[in-house]
Structures are given as C-alpha cells and as structure tokens.
Automatic annotation (TrEMBL):
Residues 321-425 form the UDP-glucose/GDP-mannose dehydrogenase C-terminal domain. The lineage of its organism: Bacteria, Bacillati, Bacillota, Bacilli, Bacillales. InterPro entries: 6-PGluconate_DH-like_C_sf, NAD(P)-bd_dom_sf, UDP-Glc/GDP-Man, UDP-Glc/GDP-Man_DH_C, UDP-Glc/GDP-Man_DH_C_sf, UDP-Glc/GDP-Man_DH_dimer, UDP-Glc/GDP-Man_DH_N, UDPglc_DH_bac. The keyword Oxidoreductase applies. Pfam families: UDPG_MGDP_dh, UDPG_MGDP_dh_C, UDPG_MGDP_dh_N. This is UDP-glucose 6-dehydrogenase. Pathway: Nucleotide-sugar biosynthesis; UDP-alpha-D-glucuronate biosynthesis; UDP-alpha-D-glucuronate from UDP-alpha-D-glucose: step 1/1. It is an enzyme of class 1 (oxidoreductase). Belongs to the UDP-glucose/GDP-mannose dehydrogenase family. Keywords: NAD, Oxidoreductase. It catalyses: UDP-alpha-D-glucose + 2 NAD(+) + H2O = UDP-alpha-D-glucuronate + 2 NADH + 3 H(+).
Length: 447
C-alpha cells in the first residue's frame, strides 16, 4: 500500500521505516530540508538503535523515500499519517499549529479517497477538528467531503526501543468513524495483526484519551514509587526491596517502578500538562495528575538538596561531575531531561560542572554552550578527574559497567550521588565510596 507521512521526527521516521519494513511503499515529508537532505543521503538525524539498517535497506529498495514537500508525493497514497510535533503551549495546552498546518497541506493535496491518520498525540476532540477542517477545504475546492476520512492512531513507542515497540506492539489502537477507513487501517497493520498483535478499534475520543491515559498512568506510577522512595529514606526501608515485593504481585507488575530523579522527555511532562489542561477545560478534577507533576518536580530538588547538604549547604567552588544528560538511556533526546535542570542549578550555585554523555553531548552543548563553569567530556573517566562528587543522572549501560576503582582514583573525593540506583550501597561502601541513592540508606548509614 502507498503511504505518506508528514513529519520525520522520532515518531514519523520510525513509523515510515517500520511501515516500509511491513511491506508498504512509504514517502516521508518534512519541511526541515536539512533533515530531508540528511535522510536522502542515507543518514538518520536521530540516534535510535536498529533504525539505520532499516533506513539503508528500504532507501536502497526504493520502498522508502524522503521529500521536503507534500507536492512531491505520489497522488495515489491510500493513507497519509500526520506525525508532527504537538509541544506544550505556555498554559500546558497542546500546541496544535503543526498538526493543523499539516491537515491544510493534505486537504490542498488530495484528489482521491485518502485516509488521514492522526498519529501525533492530540487532545480529545482534535481528530474531529482535523476532519472538519479537511472536509471543509475539500468542499471549497469543489470536491466531495467524502474524499477524506480522518482516523486516530496514537503511538505508544518508547525512544531507544522505538523499532521494537513499533514492530512488536502490545496493541495498536485505532479510533475510527467509517467502515471504509477501518478496512484501510486493517490492511496497513495486517502484517502485525497476522503475527498476533491486537488491533483495538474504538471511537475517536476514546482513542485520543487512551494515549493520554497511558502516558499519565505511567508517569503517575513513577511519581508513586518516588514518593514511596522518599518514605523509605525517612523510615529506613529500601525501595529496591519494596519494588521487588510489590512488583511480584501480578496485579501490580514489575515494570515502570524504578525510583530515581524522576521522569523527563518530550512526552510525559507535556502530555500530563495537556491532560490537566483538558480537565480545566471540562471543569473536571485532575488531582492525581497534579500530584504526579509535583512529586516529579520535588524529586529533582530533593536530589540536589542531598548534594548541597553533603557539602554543608554550599556548592560554591565544588567540582561536580554529571554522568548522563539524555532523559533516559539509548537516546540522544534531551527534551525536559532532569539533567538539564540539575546542571543549571549546579552552575547557579557556583559549582564547576563537568559533564559526560555517550551520545547526547552535542545537544547539551547547544543548550549550555560556553557558559562559564561548564566543561564537556567524551570520556567518562576524564570527566571525573579531580571531582568532589559524581552525580549519575541517566542510567546508561556504560555507567553500570564503569571501572569504579579507576573512578575512585581519579576523583578528588570518592563521593557518588546515584540518581538511578545503578550501584549497590553496601558494595560502594566496601569499595571506599560515600554513596547516596534514591529510597535507600546512604552508604554511611550502613553498619
Ligand atoms: N517522541 C516520542 O517518543 C513519541 C512522540 N509521540 C507524539 O508524536 C508526535 C511527534 O513527536 P516527535 O516525533 O517526537 O516530534 P519531533 O519534534 O521529533 O518531529 C516532528 C517533525 O515534524 C516536522 N514538521 C512539523 N510540521 C510539519 C509540516 N507541516 N510538514 C512537514 N513536516 C513538519 C518537523 O520539522 C519535525 O521534523 C507528538 O505529538 C508526540 O507527542 C508519540 C509517541 C512517542
Ligand atoms: O508518548 C510518548 O512519547 C512515549 O512516552 C514514553 O516513552 P519515552 O518518553 O520514550 O520513555 P520512557 O521509557 O517511558 O521513560 C520516560 C522517563 O521516565 C523515566 N522512568 C521510566 C521508568 C521508570 O521506572 N522510572 C523512571 O524514572 C525515564 O528515565 C525517562 O526519563 C512512553 O513509555 C511511551 O509508551 C510513549 O509512547
């Protein structure tokens, strides 16, 4: 089937590559010409494990093409996906300007029956708005409103595992109003449903809400375990043991219960904010969502406060190393990364900050540039030379496997603030470190 995709960001590009892998002929459009040129030369503009081989293969086969304007797309696409950004506006509402712009471009382009797929995360009611807008434009062009159906097809992939999540989804959710569009969506996803992945069909509003509810639920789980972690610290319990204890109850499950410096990324913060904005619009309650955001904010502050407390309230002149800038491992994405907040605060408090990240360092440089007090390192061991403390903020594998003897020898004082509970406190104590982690006794509290 011929498919067009508007937007080649994390979601659009992964969707394009995976739909090609599923046997479709895909054309990806992005208004960012630099991105398109890079993609046309066979290079991925993002770091995503497993993406590049598929990109190379399908570009060579001609089943995946990249263009900078919808006008360059074949006119006989059966479906066009909208996968553009929906960033947070000032009041937390989702900014729909990119989505509506893409919808207008599609409405000006189509000449035959096309299913428009809202893949971007959009607030309840938006797919209907897109539908009205496209159909009104078709009418004004003297064409039938029935030339376009708009469906909702939210995406649940995680960065760093995007290819795997797209090709082996727990479920595919489609919100739909027309039988004709339902058949097209069934055909698109047939290679996955044939393998047993379920396609859940529902109305538009429920599909849009499902996406927000999923992200809000996951974010609230993280805040829940972080609140329990704070209580563990206060009472002398160990959150890692508690996680094991509750996670083995099948009603709770073990996933998404890792305590740490809190969630970041381009989606949880913005989607929880957008859902709260929806609650305001409908004068409904959002107390769990508010608490989720509040705990997440507090978690970063608590982590920083522990470092300040260790140095008797002042970070002035302290050499602090930050390991990890990406909002999570296996991505170069630093949008809303906890590390950004922490680095800003450290610099404001007068600390000298050395940072390392295996992939995201160039993005960090775009944010902090030559700001006095900051230094960038490509080697994690060079980054800790002479440091008074190491703060581990992203749980990259390279840190889990780090040679801590070398780290200890390189540091001014062997002090580690472990924001992702990567190291064991007792082992760290025995190795001669002062180690603080989240929701567990600090090394110096162990007998
Ligand atoms: N990043 C993620 O892991 C996930 C994101 N989502 C949702 O998917 C949507 C897209 O997110 P990302 O891929 O992260 O965004 P992104 O910001 O990485 O990419 C968006 C792309 O759309 C392009 N674009 C914007 N307007 C355009 C237009 N009119 N014509 C052509 N290109 C246009 C931009 O140049 C950019 O390359 C958002 O609604 C997001 O909430 C959903 C699930 C996962
Ligand atoms: O809508 C989206 O964009 C996506 O948002 C998340 O995916 P993603 O943001 O890529 O990353 P996650 O793996 O969910 O991690 C988000 C944040 O939570 C943190 N986290 C995650 C899990 C955990 O147990 N504890 C925890 O602090 C991570 O470190 C990270 O900062 C969801 O997991 C995806 O299903 C969804 O499609």
């Amino acid at each position: 089937m011929k498919i067009g995709i508007i937007g080649t960001g994390y979601v659009g590009l992964v969707t394009g590559v995976c739909l090609a892998e599923m046997g479709h002929e895909v054309t990806c459009i992005d208004q960012n010409t630099a991105k398109i040129q890079l993609l046309q030369s066979g290079q991925a503009p993002i770091y995503e494990p497993g993406l590049e081989p598929l990109l190379t293969r399908h570009s060579a086969l001609g089943t995946l093409q990249f263009r900078s304007s919808i006008a360059e797309m074949a006119e006989d696409a059966a479906a066009i996906f909208i996968a553009v950004g929906t960033p947070s506006g000032a009041d937390g509402t989702a900014d729909l300007s990119f989505v509506l712009q893409a919808a207008d471009q599609i409405a000006d382009f189509i000449t035959r029956y096309t299913v428009v797929v809202a893949k971007s995360t959009v607030p309840v009611g938006t797919t209907r708005v897109i539908m009205e807008r496209i159909q009104a434009k078709l009418e004004s062009r003297g064409l039938s409103r029935k030339l376009a159906d708009v469906v909702s097809n939210p995406e649940f992939l995680r960065e760093g595992k995007a290819i795997e999540d797209f090709l082996q989804p727990d479920r595919i959710v489609v919100g739909i109003e027309s039988q004709q569009a339902a058949r097209v969506m069934e055909q698109i996803y047939e290679p996955l449903t044939k393998k047993g992945h379920s396609l859940i069909v529902m109305d538009l509003r429920s599909s849009e809400m499902t996406k927000y509810a999923a992200n809000a639920m996951l974010a609230s789980r993280i805040s829940f375990i972080n609140e329990i972690a704070e209580l563990c610290e206060a009472t002398g319990a160990d959150v890692e043991k508690v996680r094991l204890g509750i996670g083995s109850d099948h009603r709770i499950g073990p996933f998404f219960l890792s305590a740490g410096v809190g969630y970041g990324g381009s989606c949880f913060p913005k989607d929880v904010a957008a859902l709260m904005a929806t609650a305001r619009e409908y004068q409904a309650s959002s107390s769990i969502l508010q608490a989720t955001v509040e705990v997440n904010r507090r978690q970063r502050k608590r982590f920083l406060a522990k470092v300040a407390e260790y140095f008797h309230g002042s970070l002035e002149g302290k050499a602090i190393t930050v390991w990890g800038v990406a909002f999570k491992p296996d991505t170069d994405d630093i949008r809303e990364a906890p590390a950004l907040d922490l680095i800003k605060s450290l610099l404001n408090e007068g600390a000298a900050v050395s940072i390392h990240d295996p992939i995201a360092l160039p993005h960090a440089k775009q944010v902090f540039g030559d700001r006095p007090g900051i230094r960038y390192f490509n080697d994690p061991y060079e980054a800790v030379q002479g440091a008074h403390a190491l703060m581990l903020v992203t749980d990259w594998d390279v840190y889990r496997k780090a040679d801590m003897d070398l780290v200890k020898k390189s540091m001014n004082k062997p002090v580690v603030f472990d924001g992702r509970n990567v190291f064991d406190p007792v082992q760290m104590k025995n190795a001669g470190f002062h180690h603080y982690s989240i929701g567990r006794k600090a090394s110096w509290e162990h007998e």
